[in-house]
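ARCHIVE CARD
CATEGORY: sequence design from structure
SOURCE FIELD: tokenized fold
FIELD CONTENT:
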């Protein structure tokens, strides 16, 4: 008789497994832990209870057999090359991503992409159902897996299901563009608890349920299954591993590297830094425009002031990303051609990914950190920068359109669409006296150290555990199930009757 597969009390489902495949010179395959914050947060949680992680291993085709790595059971989900194209690059990154980020670029809709998204979500739900123990807690991550909660509930009504959205949840006016809007909401409503980065995101979700599904809502709750179950949607903002990252930034070799970076740039008076995935949401174009104008107006200039822009390669097979790369590289070329000097370029542009140590050194080397997204769920770079500034040096310019801004109010706030305002903010970040900047940095660091990623995970799991027990008794006159889609924006009195008091 085959031995039954082990099952786990805590299961994470995310598009990617928390490991990267490394093939050695001898062809030997090794898995290396990817350094993201989510992994660190889960390590702290999984220390007390053994857990499993369900996700794609990163290569199209057959998936490797499940394996254990550093105390976590990894359960790979296979994706074919067509699914990588349709579910991942297509529906996730070219349909949902633009809609969820204010349609900065137009979204693309293809029915085949949607079919692929459904099929992959079903596969994830089945994989989770296989590894989850009786009554387990399942934590689904992000916009790629929005159908998993309901699909999983059908397979395993005994498990407790949470979902966390790492990106914004759009206002109903934008979300309503999606031809599959009702199915996506219904997919999520299979969860017991839905976590968002900002309160506004949670409110957008509740409002979408009310207006697009005709669901009953009250404050942060949506009633489903004819009043039998309530789903709570609330903000629990993600963070960074403050202690781990600060320790790294305090290492003598990392601090020496920070000095070396400055020296290799000619020890400028002001070193400005941008670190982003090369994504149109990050506001890199707006940042470069403000910087270029400051240079052409001779308010700042190399070699005294210089900018290092790290643009990590991202989604290179999606058209909008290819176009963006061309545009950014052309702009950097123009700025350097027109405004740089021999031995002192105005922009040091790096289209690479770096080890964590190098990132920590760059953060320490930078006098002004430019975080200027047009829309960003959180933006961990902002939190990582202040974590690394144990010397209380540096200044953070932070867009109001990031989730981070809602926690880091003391930063030099900017609206990246307002180029004139952005220029003024950059100059203020440069010219504010060091003593004031230290005071600001101290406050920012306090916020991040008090609200680190371990606390985020603990808060999330506590909220999930506290979600209302199910099922509640059947009401005598159950209202019509929400599956029927109601038109967008019902007349005001209709909308009032559909909701019970919740306003956003
Ligand atoms: C999504 C949401 C939300 C970047 N380049 C390198 C590198 N990075 C690291 C950064 C940071 C992470 O990648 C990027 O995180 P962000 O939060 O800035 O942005 P997204 O990738 O868009 O993440 C976002 C996040 O999910 C978490 O919920 O905050 O809003 O869009 O940690 O440091 N790390 C290394 N080398 C690089 O070259 N080692």
């Amino acid at each position: 008789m085959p031995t039954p597969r082990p099952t786990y009390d805590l299961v994470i489902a995310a598009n990617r497994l928390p490991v990267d495949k490394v093939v050695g010179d001898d062809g030997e395959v090794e898995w290396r832990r990817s350094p993201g914050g989510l992994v660190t947060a889960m390590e702290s949680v999984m220390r007390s209870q053994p857990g499993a992680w369900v996700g794609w291993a990163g290569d199209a085709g057959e998936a490797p057999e499940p394996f254990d790595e550093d105390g976590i059971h990894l359960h790979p989900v296979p994706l074919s090359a067509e699914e990588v194209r349709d579910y991942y690059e297509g529906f996730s990154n070219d349909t949902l991503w633009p809609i969820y980020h204010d349609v900065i670029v137009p979204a693309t809709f293809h029915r085949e992409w949607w079919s692929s998204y459904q099929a992959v979500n079903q596969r994830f739900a089945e994989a989770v159902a296989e590894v989850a123990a009786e009554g387990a807690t399942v934590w689904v991550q992000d916009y790629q897996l929005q159908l998993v909660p309901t699909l999983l509930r059908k397979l395993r009504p005994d498990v407790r299901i949470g979902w966390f959205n790492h990106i914004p949840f759009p206002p109903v006016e934008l979300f309503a563009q999606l031809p599959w809007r009702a199915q996506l909401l219904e997919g999520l409503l299979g969860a017991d608890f839905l976590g968002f980065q900002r309160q506004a995101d949670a409110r957008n979700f509740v409002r979408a349920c009310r207006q697009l599904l005709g669901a009953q809502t009250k404050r942060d709750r949506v009633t489903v299954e004819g009043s039998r179950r309530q789903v709570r949607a609330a903000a629990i903002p993600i963070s960074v591993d403050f202690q781990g990252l600060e320790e790294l930034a305090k290492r003598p070799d990392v601090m020496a590297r920070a000095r070396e970076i400055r020296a290799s740039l000619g020890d400028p008076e002001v070193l400005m830094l941008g670190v982003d995935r090369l994504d149109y949401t990050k506001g890199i174009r707006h940042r470069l425009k403000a910087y270029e104008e400051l240079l052409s107006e001779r308010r700042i200039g190399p070699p005294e002031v210089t900018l290092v822009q790290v643009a990590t390669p991202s989604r290179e097979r999606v058209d909008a990303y290819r176009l963006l790369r061309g545009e950014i590289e052309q702009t950097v070329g123009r700025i350097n051609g027109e405004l740089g000097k021999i031995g002192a370029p105005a922009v040091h542009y790096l289209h690479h990914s770096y080890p964590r140590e190098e990132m920590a050194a760059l953060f320490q080397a930078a006098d002004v950190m430019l975080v200027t997204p047009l829309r960003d769920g959180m933006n961990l770079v902002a939190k990582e920068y202040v974590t690394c500034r144990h010397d209380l040096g540096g200044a953070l310019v932070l867009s109001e359109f990031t989730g981070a801004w809602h926690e880091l109010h003391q930063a030099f706030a900017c609206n990246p669409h307002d180029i004139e305002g952005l220029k003024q903010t950059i100059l203020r970040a440069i010219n504010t006296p060091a003593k004031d900047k230290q005071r600001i940095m101290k406050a920012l660091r306090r916020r991040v150290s008090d609200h680190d990623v371990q606390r985020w995970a603990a808060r999330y799991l506590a909220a999930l555990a506290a979600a209302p027990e199910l099922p509640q008794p059947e009401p005598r006159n159950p209202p019509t199930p929400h599956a029927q889609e109601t038109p967008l924006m019902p007349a005001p009195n209709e909308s009032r009757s559909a909701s019970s008091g919740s306003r956003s």
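CARD ANNOTATION: The first helix runs from residue 37 to 46. The first strand starts at residue 8 and ends at 16.
SHELF: design records, drawer C
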